[in-house]
Amino acid sequence: xxxxxxxxxxxxxxxxxxxxxxxxxxxxxxAQDPRGRREGQVxxxxxxxxxxxxxxxxxxxxxxxxxxxxxxxxxGLVGGQVAWDGPAPLVxxxxxxxxxxxxxxxxxxxxxxxxxxxxxxxxxAEAEDRLFPLSLAAEGSCRIGGNLSTNAGxxxxxxxxxxxxxxxxxxxxxxxxxxxxxxxxxxKDNTGYDLRNLLVGAEGTLGIITAAALKxxxxxxxxxxxxxxxxxxxxxxxxxxxARAIVGDGVSAFExxxxxxxxxxxxxxxxxxxPFAEPPEWCxxxxxxxxxxxxxxxxxxQLFEQAAEQGLAxxxxxxxxxxxxxxLWTVREHIPEANRLIGSIASHxxxxxxxxxxxxxxxxGKRIAAKGEFRVNAFGHAGDGNLHYNIFPPKxxxxxxxxxxxxxxxxxxxxxVHQMGGSISAEHGIGRxxxxxxxxxxxxTKLAAMRAIKAALDPLGIMNPGxxxxx
Amino acid sequence: xxxxxxxxxxxxxxxxxxxxxxxxxxxxxxAQDPRGRREGQVxxxxxxxxxxxxxxxxxxxxxxxxxxxxxxxxxGLVGGQVAWDGPAPLVxxxxxxxxxxxxxxxxxxxxxxxxxxxxxxxxxAEAEDRLFPLSLAAEGSCRIGGNLSTNAGxxxxxxxxxxxxxxxxxxxxxxxxxxxxxxxxxxKDNTGYDLRNLLVGAEGTLGIITAAALKxxxxxxxxxxxxxxxxxxxxxxxxxxxARAIVGDGVSAFExxxxxxxxxxxxxxxxxxxPFAEPPEWCxxxxxxxxxxxxxxxxxxQLFEQAAEQGLAxxxxxxxxxxxxxxLWTVREHIPEANRLIGSIASHxxxxxxxxxxxxxxxxGKRIAAKGEFRVNAFGHAGDGNLHYNIFPPKxxxxxxxxxxxxxxxxxxxxxVHQMGGSISAEHGIGRxxxxxxxxxxxxTKLAAMRAIKAALDPLGIMNPGxxxxx
Lengths: 471, 471
Description:
The structure is a homodimer.
Chain A: H1 8-15, E1 23-24, E2 44-46, H2 51-64, E3 68-71, E4 90-93, E5 100-104, E6 109-113, H3 118-127, E7 130-131, H4 144-149, H5 157-160, E8 167-173, E9 179-182, H6 195-199, E10 208-215, E11 217-218, E12 222-230, H7 233-247, E13 251-258, H8 259-268, E14 282-290, H9 296-309, E15 315-318, H10 322-342, E16 346-351, H11 357-369, E17 375-381, E18 386-392, H12 406-419, H13 435-441, H14 444-457
Parallel strand pairs in A: 2-4, 3-4
Antiparallel strand pairs in A: 1-2, 5-6, 6-10, 7-11, 8-9, 8-10, 12-14, 12-15, 13-14, 16-18, 17-18
């Protein structure tokens, strides 16, 4: 199906259908990739105020065969929101639909419009003494519609699940412009196919999420945080098992940190205070969230003692105050920024079955080393089997000289992940950046089913063309 | 599309494709509805031993335009497994594919074939000191493939989610006979559309689940159970909030029980020992599952005291032993059997937003009473907003005289549920029994999308025709 660019004539047509202030000339910031890889295109920019305007816009785009790019906070890392090929799209930004429509503390439910910034959703829950547990680096600017469309992960997946697991219902506009009123606040609803989860993670290729009913949790009465030095990546997993034997699913975060990440901090962000004089080869940041009657610091001490006895803990710091907790998290949260300042040759968002993490780290390290001298920073959500595996040039050298090798390095990493039954996109999605890799590694039956579903729901192919599935 | 019955010629054709012992003449038990509503049909019965045989069978059915009925434990309550209309199908029973393929304690994952009985899955997890939390009345005979296909609920949804939430990956045969190898053990995998959740809850209309990777949890260190008398259904919800404020998500079950259910027990199952001399109007069964360092009985006492102070608890029994815990659960678990012995005129599996449960109970009671004298037993998973709302004749009268009113009564209940933003099928699914109601109450945009997806994945319409979506 040939699509047409969202040109001036189309803009004129739209101006007869939606309020004048809902349309704007293309703005450069909607065309930017946060990692600066490639520039996208914006034909017409629309900023609807309600679901009916979104419906009107999509119907007009369908009629004119114009591609539609749903736009949230623009923080996606795989180019799902950057139209770097095909005709210039109608960009529909949800930013004006940012209301919290309601909070229902008795039900542990919050209903937010798609344009609500994640941090605002968290704050609205907190105001009612509830927790919205989705938490990730971009939470100050990413929007909940984008979080759902990409099935965002983050640091609390271990305990609370990813964005998909936190969504009870959706309001959305399908590719034909029809509105789906699926904004239920129900915990149980077995009435037909799971359209909700089909839209969640579809990265805007099957419709536009306009609002969501979200699951809240009780705020843990006590939280405790520790950083524990472990002798190996394998020991980290054993430590997690010990922690779970003690506090059940009270472990809310379990982040693996490699020496390389700490050395990067020392190199480019020396103001970040580090807990250990010598950066250890491996350490983990563990957080507990517990109910009443338990002292998290005491539980962490018990954990540390038990782990030390079993040779799973070599050293450790247990936060004794809110300030110390924050300090430990600051270390973890600044690693991506340090990576950015150092400049990676190739970065990967992978997962493997949790028990294979140690094997993966060892084998990937070997295969990368066979290609030359590199620095590798493997870190992330070990409790979910999800590592960010980033490859950097040797100290003092610029990445530019190594960039031609990026494709080969990625192939080595992704081949190994695939071989281990893992995923080449654990939490960032496919977007445009990984569409070719999805074809390479994806199950053929699943890919065929995906294409059939796409053709069934979006026969004109107008919704975010080029993302997830290539033409 | 006209379909053909699975006749002798088709059986002969199949006998050239799969081993002889994999085919059997139609057997009556595969045609029975557990509630005895209607008899189904079995054309040919196949009992494959592996996914390749399932694939072969489905391909042959597609070629011959023969309907396929996937068969698990046969315990479904909405006729999804009973072909009571259309040509006689090829029934594919998964009972011989019942292996536990692996347990991965470090990963908290278990891989089971679709025919594994739920209780066997639970036991395999327990053998590795892990919990597979899905638990429901039929667990001794239902099979995990059916649990997933119907997105089964049960008593632990409050804490652990329904079957959908416990599934990480699937192996399945799609309607074209192709095998989808989606049996990942990954906690995070954002590689394309969520085919897993599309098959989960599709009740066998989009393919046949042949195996699943399932999520395990730590076994709670301590469990405590209490039955608490509350002054009203509204007070029950407040009690749940108090419990959560104390133990966070340590509340693993929260079941509402009405006086009518206890009176039924007295009437038809007098051997079931009841905790209260006089059956209270409302009581709740609450179960806590806690980590180390907490005494569940003590937490329940604290809860009871706090609730009593706020007027939310009038009386209560806290189990002091495993035997007493079992006794309290026995009361809850025998209510469905008592219902069956009394004989309902109409039964409903509904959910509403949790905070609306008291309004629903009151308003539904009024509307039913306006139709005549009935006994109503409303009970179930209040923490999930899910009630089983069953209507019975007055004491001493047979239901037969009232059966002609069943449709009207159901309409009254479902109309109210719909009006309150609820679901006419919370945990049992649509099957054949509720397909017309799905058309009546379902969102038109969602229904159209469902039909498009069905046509895309099953263009011949061979997979469980008549279930979920009517022709």
